Amino acid sequence: MGMTRPETGSFRDPGGRVYVINGHVYRSVMPTAVDDYEFVRSTGLIDKLCGNGQAIPETAVDPGVLGVDGEGARYVLEHPMLPFISYPYEWSFPALKAAALLQLDVHLEALDHGVTLSDASAYNIQFRGPRPVFIDSLSFRRYREGEFWMGHRQFCEQFVNPLLLRALLGVTHNSWYRGALEGISAQELRPLLRWSHKFSWNILTHVVMQARLQGRATSQFSAEYRIRRRKLSPLAFRQMLRGLRKWIAKLEPADTGKTVWADYAGCNNYKSEETQAKRNFIGDFSRSLQPDVLWDIGCNTGDYSKAALESGATYVVGFDLDQGALNLAYYRAIDENLNFLPLYLDAANQSPSQGWAQSERRGLTERASADGILALAVVHHLSIGRNIPLQEVVDWLVAMAPEGVIEFVQKSDPMVQSLLRLREDIFDDYSEESFVHYLERKADIVRFATVSGANRRLFWFRRR
Amino acid sequence: MLLVLLPCLFYITPAHAYLDPGAGSILLQSLLASIATAAALGGIFWQRLKAFFSSLFPTRKSTDSNPEATTDKSR
């Protein structure tokens, strides 16, 4: 058996670590975590949550699968492999909100079983399609009556405050969260709030008061004293969770109304027969490739992700920069029950490897690879919109998957012209001829088709 | 002047560096404990009051939404 290496993001809990070996996901349970693990299992909580689709299933396997690493472990559990691991700074507002609600629901269910959660990390939640699922069974431990909610601060920083940033101020959480992996603290958010926001009981307590109390707690002793003296009754604990749940369920982005999103869906640059031609092409590609995981770079509202899913793709991860489109794509995936997860991504500045030792949270291409990609109406945005040399754009896309479909938009196209309207055309290299030349240096062109009156063309490539 | 002020800037922060970042949350929870208990009891009392009155007028059907629903689609 070869050397195993624990997952880089799982080092914080000495009670166990996660290992990925040959496409299998294992979690070790070390002696310090055994009492709580056995107690939690005996309550039936895990089975109940798995049955509801709220937690990821686990089965005990022979600790030998971990080789040397399994020696100290009392149990080794196997989880099913998720098609893609995503991070909260890649989630859209409704996805972060759904994750927050799941965290609270799981905690409420746990309390009913005499169990609590030792933390409230957003990284303990992953997505299967658009639906969140809790993945860290070692966060559960026996509840002791009267104890405080130890994950409250973390819940506020990793869920509540990033959601409030958008819901109150219309600022998206993604860039800030990516820069501060543990989220946004109450002390950071408080100075940004307006007076009118502070009339809300929830904002007053969870943001303003928490920030002030943190600032005033000049010694640790006062908090320790409180922990020893005061208790949080089970009734009050549940009330806090329920209160937060009710509040978060009502949060909506301040910057986009429903009507804007609806308009967005209706407004696109193609006539319907052009859209249909594209769908047919994607359908043929998807039927031929049958990809387990397809990445749709520039997924917009998910039209072509859906076309791919309907013709052979098992799971699609969509990426887009536009928050309005992402919101729509997310709700569409929920409504139409699609195996589709739309995520925020600036293709010119993709998620990097970062966190502890620059490997705790992995960059997009270090984290996973796709069986196929779609890159429709993307090349001109990168090449002309962001000045990235055409050859580099092509190389980047072809490196991402062995097979895919790339759309080339001519320079004369109205959308490219609008990108060039206020700037000098310094893009002599931007032509279909150059595009094909660069593509054929790395891949074979399986098929191509013209899909619009403006000569937009789709190229189906197969990497050599 | 700057030489006088600079050390002050550096002396302010260290106290916080050793402060548990959860102290504010714990202090808040200890303050909220009684309020949350009162709110929860008030909620239970309100439910019972509603149940009592709806039992007096049994023709009206309860339209309470399902509190078990996990995903909230408030769109």
Summed up, what is this model?
Chain A is about 45% helix and about 15% strand. Chain A has about 475 residues and is α/β, with parallel strands linked by helices.
**β-strand number of chain B:** 0
**Approximate strand percentage of chain B:** under 5%
What structural category arises from helix and sheet content of chain B? mainly alpha
CATH architectural designation of the largest domain in chain A: 3-Layer(aba) Sandwich
Q: Which overall shape of chain B is indicated by the principal axes computed on the Cα atoms?
A: rod-shaped
- Average of the residue pLDDT scores of chain A: 92
Q: Might you state the CATH topology name of the largest domain in chain A?
A: Rossmann fold
Computed Rg of chain A: 24 Å
Write structural notes for this entry.
The complex is a heterodimer of chains A (464) and B (75). Chain A has three domains: 1-81; 126-249, no CATH class; 261-463, Vaccinia Virus protein VP39 (Rossmann fold), CATH 3.40.50.150. Chain A is 43% helix and 16% strand. Chain A contains 18 helices and 15 strands. In chain A, the strands form four sheets. In chain A, strands 11-10-9-12-13-15-14 form a seven-stranded mixed beta sheet, with helices on both faces. Chain A has a four-stranded antiparallel beta sheet with strand order 1-2-4-3. Chain A has a two-stranded antiparallel sheet with strand order 5-8. In chain A, a hairpin with a 6-residue loop joins strand 14 (443-450) and strand 15 (457-463). The model of chain A has no long low-confidence stretch (mean pLDDT 92). By secondary structure, chain B is mainly alpha-helical. Chain B has helices at 2-12, 14-17, 23-56. Chain B is rod-shaped. Chain A binds chain B through residues 52, 54, 94, 97-98, 101-102, 105, 131, 148-150, 152-153, 156, 185-186, 205-206, 209-215, 217-220, 222-223, 226-227, 229-233, 235-240, 243, 249-250, 252, 258, 331, 334-335, and chain B through 15, 18-34, 36-37, 39-41, 43, 70-75.
